[in-house]
Each structure stands twice: as structure tokens, then as C-alpha cells.
Amino acid sequence: MRRFISKLAKRLQGSRFWQLFSRSRAALVGQTAGGARDAGAQQGASPDAAVETIPGKLSARERLDHLSGFRLSWDEISFPSSTSHRGGKAKVVQATVRREAGNEETVAVKKLYYHKDMEIRKFSNEFVHEVELLAGLSHENIVRLIGFAEQLEQGEAWIVLSWHPNGNVREFLVTGELEIPERISLIKDTFGGLMYLHSRNPPICHGDLKSLNILVSSSYRAIITDFGSARVRDELAERVVPEDRGPATSQSLTGEEAKIRVGATGNQLTLTGPAWSLRWAPPEVVNGAITSLPGDMWSAGWVCWEIMTNEFPFPKLNLERAIALTVIRGKVPSTHDDAQLSQITALCSLMTDCWKFDPIDRPGVAQCQNEVAWMPSTPPSGVKTPSIELLLQMGELHLSHGRQEEAASLFQQALAVGGSAGGSEGIAKALFALGRTYYLQTKCSESEESFVQAQQIFTRIGDDQGRAAALQGLGELYRLQTRYSEAEESFVQAQQIFTRIGNDQGLADT
């Protein structure tokens, strides 16, 4: 009987319960031992065609003619607000676009700077490059191109983008205290957007990733913006070659490359070249190499740092030469010294890997996305009273690190909030989480009671997935107590439900 029950349990190891249970149990063992939406291109272009930055012999005007579906007239755009944000090459202003049908949409207008010392050709090409690239992007974590308006000969160039009311991540972080699962949600979104860019054919390097270039939407999701430094890359372009050894070249590289030239005279350091976000720049770029996909990963590590700590990179350094020397020497902070970060050792390790001095040693975005995928998270709610989902995810975070008492306390709070709000689903989830926690604490009677109540509520509200997970939890508990006939009954019921609802994950090993 015991062998048969073990076989039944193994067949259910892919289920939601098993994944959560296994992580929690692994954390407990470790503690004891040690003490897309990708909807395709936007209107008028396919993703690969629109981001193609080899314009051939076409002029800026001819290239814009190919994007006529995005063109807006000046009188379609009005500026009811004086609110603006200034950057190195542009300012962003809130505006309203009025369509022919009378519909209005709140937008962000990026007005590129032009001054008499600039070449009109360079100004035009940078504008067209960004519009072309944006026209081919469509992802929930990437800013959406609404349109453009221009009079390039007069130095007027506007890029009209989707409006996101919560500002950038840096601004959003200072509006209130976010819990760790809310911060991880923003990190997951950032990696999601970066994964989309790096997986294009050919890949797109953002080139200026930082908290100031990541917006927070009305639904509190992270949105990557500002593609003025973005470049299309191919394999040849990913050779990271410092300036003094000869630049990497490729036919797919066009436009003005974002480089910093560093010159030392005595004890002085001089930086020349286009505006660059030096605090986030990888060492090879500060040394003169072109921007690259591994460079984005260095910057992504700093974005994780900012989101978790509320601090800029190198917050105590103000002089450019001091920042540059620190970057070149590969000096990065200890992730374990921060109270928030020290609670998530896997994220600490991931950030440290992103900060590897040699670009070849840094992880790719797919690896980063996989690493954070399992971390408990929930989008920020915008309200100060913690939601059931936030309390549940905070509890999962503690449980995954073997802190059962803290987890149980948070799950009990979630149960209380669910009871006062009258939400059956939230109550069932909290009971299910408590059942798992009590199981790990070998509080068998409390665990059984929690699983039974969760299973009853899931049944009442028609949540078959939750019901099967609760039954599987009971099966594991009964097996622990050598109550094999009851374990068999629970496992069989769970298996039947997973089969009926076509849950491949629940039957991964059958």
C-alpha cells in the first residue's frame, strides 16, 4: 500500500500544490542543514520589418512616409497640462489627442530638443530611428507608439506615446512603502519587457535601462520606455570591443552609437560623447565599447537594486569622474547588506551575476526571467491597506525561505481580511496556504482542518484547480501520518479532477 501511495503522489508532482509544497519543504531542509502578450506589430508594420534600421538610400522624409499610418497633425494634439519631465535629449509633456470621431486619449508627447549647433540630418535620423523602432513593438511591458508629428526642417519633432499616470519607477517608489512581493512584480515586468526586446529577430538592445526609463501603468505594471539609445543588434555586433582595440562593426549597426570616451590626464578623468546615464552604464561602455545585450543585463541588475532599495546606483558619488572610475573598477555594492534584499537570496545572487565584470559571464535575460518567475509577487495595489493577495504573497516569500511562523501569521491575516471582505476565494487560498504551513510544522490536526475547509470552499465556488490542490495536500498529509487508505482516496480524487479539467501541469509526471 505504501509503495502504491508513493506512486500516486509522484504522478501529481507537477501540480500547483506540489510546486509550492516542494519549494517550502526545500527551504525547510536547507534551513535545517545550515541552521504576453505579444500581439505582433502595431498598426502599419510587422515587428521585424518595422525595427529594421538599414534604411538604404532612403532619406528621413522617405522613411517617415512609410509610417504614414502613425502621422498626426498638429491640431490633433493639445496640451491641457504644463506638467513635463526633462531628459537629456527631450522633454515629455502630458497631452490629449483628439481623433476625427471625437474620441480623446491622454498621451505623453516626447519633444526632442533641437538647437542651432546640431546637424539637422543627425537630429532627423535620431527621431526617425526611434519612431521606426517603436512602430514595430507591441508588448504589455513596452510603451506603445500612438503617433508622431514633425517639421524636421524647423527642428520640430514629437513622438506621441501611451500615457501612464503613476510616473516612472523612481517616482513611484517614493510615494509609499511597497512590500517585497510588490517590488518583485515590477522586476518581473521589467525582465518581461527586456525579454521581448532581446528575443526580436534581430535582437534590440535598449541601451539606457534605468528606473527613470521604466513607467508604472494605471494597473501598476512596469512599462519600459525611452528608446532613443536603443539599437538593433546581430551576433557580430555583440562582440564587446573597447574603443582602443577597435570598435565592433556590423552592417546592422546604424545611427549614432552611444559611446563614452574616457581620457585620463594626471588625476583628472574626462568624459566626452553623447549624453549617457553613467550610473547605470556597464564598465565596457565606460571604456568605449558600443552598447550590447550584456550591457542591458548590467543595467537590469541596477534596476533590481533600485526597486528593492529605493536607491540610485552609487548614491554617495556625485562627480562623474568618481562614478566612472568606480564603474571601470567593477565596484558594486554587497546585496546582502540591505535588509530587504537579504530576505531573497536568489535575487541577490542574480543581481551579482548581472554585475559580472566580463560581459560574457553575465546571464541572459531568459535566465533572469526564469530565476524570478517562481518568486512570490503581486502588482502594487495603490492602497495602504494590504490586500489578501499581497498578504498571501508575503507569506509565500517567508515560507519559501523556511520562516514558517512569519508565514503562518501573514496567512492568518489574509484569512481575517478575507472574512471581513466576504471573499470566498481569498479565504480558500488563505486556508490552503495555512494547510501547507501547518504541514511543514507537523501540526497535523491544524493542517487537516485547513485543507478540508479550503477544499469545501473551492468546491462550493466551482474552483476545480483549487479543489484538486487541496485534495492533494490532504493526500500528502495522510501519507505522512501513514493513513494510506485516506491518502489513496485523496490522491485519486485529485488525479481525476486534473484529468477532467485537462491540467497538464497537474499531471506532468503521469
TrEMBL record:
Keywords of this entry: TPR repeat
Start and end residues of each Protein kinase domain: 78-375
Repeat (TPR) residue spans along the chain: 388-421
Entry superkingdom: Eukaryota
Keyword Transport: no
InterPro entries reported for this sequence: Kinase-like_dom_sf, Prot_kinase_dom, Ser/Thr_kinase_AS, Ser/Thr_Kinases-Pseudokinases, TPR-like_helical_dom_sf, TPR_rpt
One GO MF term attached to the UniProt entry: protein serine/threonine kinase activity
Pfam families in alphabetical order: Pkinase, TPR_12
Xref: Gene3D superfamilies: Tetratricopeptide repeat domain, Transferase(Phosphotransferase) domain 1
SUPFAM superfamilies: Protein kinase-like (PK-like), TPR-like
Protein name: Protein kinase domain-containing protein
